[in-house]
Amino acid sequence: MCLNLGKDFIGKLVYKLYHHKQNNVIVAEALNTSNMVKNKHLSKSISDAAWATFFDTCANIAERDGLHFHQVDPKHTSQTCSSCGQKPKKKLSLATRTFKCSYCANTMDRDHNAAQNILQRAAAALRGERWATDLYEARNKNEATKATDHKKVIQLPLFDTINNPNAFRLG
User: Fold this and answer.
1) How many other CB atoms are found less than 10 A from the CB of residue 122?
2) pLDDT 10s digits, 97-152
């Protein structure tokens, strides 16, 4: 029973993510969850979050509905400045929650910085630019697209908490 509730929640969440403001792209890190659960301190939390199920659902719905699900290599996404592209001389520990660039003075939440880097990598791959790694994409295989057909990729605010305080409500 509990497993079905989790799958149902993930299915509804992914549907809302894709259909929020006509969004047709979800971008995520290509996380290797099977290696991550080997960490005895984080394994229960990672398993409970069901990341692998979430990613599989994103890919399945994208392929079924002709939408896009992109995964980019997570390497250095939280260690690289999203403004100037420089990496700090000293590696940030997981306890450090604020990213402060010593090159351009950019300061932001570490997770927000990583999200910006993930989005930039996916946008660059869609423009045909090469990163050190490939972009993994799941979409409708019947849809014929060219690299030049992609319009400028913009980030849609999924949770606009300033103008809509109830944005986090899924029901």
Assistant:
1) 23
2) 999 998 899 999 999 999 999 998 888 887 777 654 444 444 444 443 444 344 44
Residues 154 and 101: their CA atoms lie apart, in Å, by 24
Question: In Å, how far are 44, 86, 110 from 103, measured between CA atoms?
Answer: 37, 7, 16
Q: What strands lie across the sheet with 68-72, from one edge to the other? A: 25-29, 68-72, 136-139
Give the pLDDT band (50/70/90) at residue 2.
Answer: low
User: Cα 61 to chain center, whole Å?
Assistant: 16
Helix, strand, coil percentages for the chain (3-state, nearest 5) = 40, 10, 50
- SS3 readout for 44-104: HHHHHHCHHHHHHHHHHHHHHHCCEEEEECCCCCCCCCCCCCCCCCCCCCCCCCEEECCCC
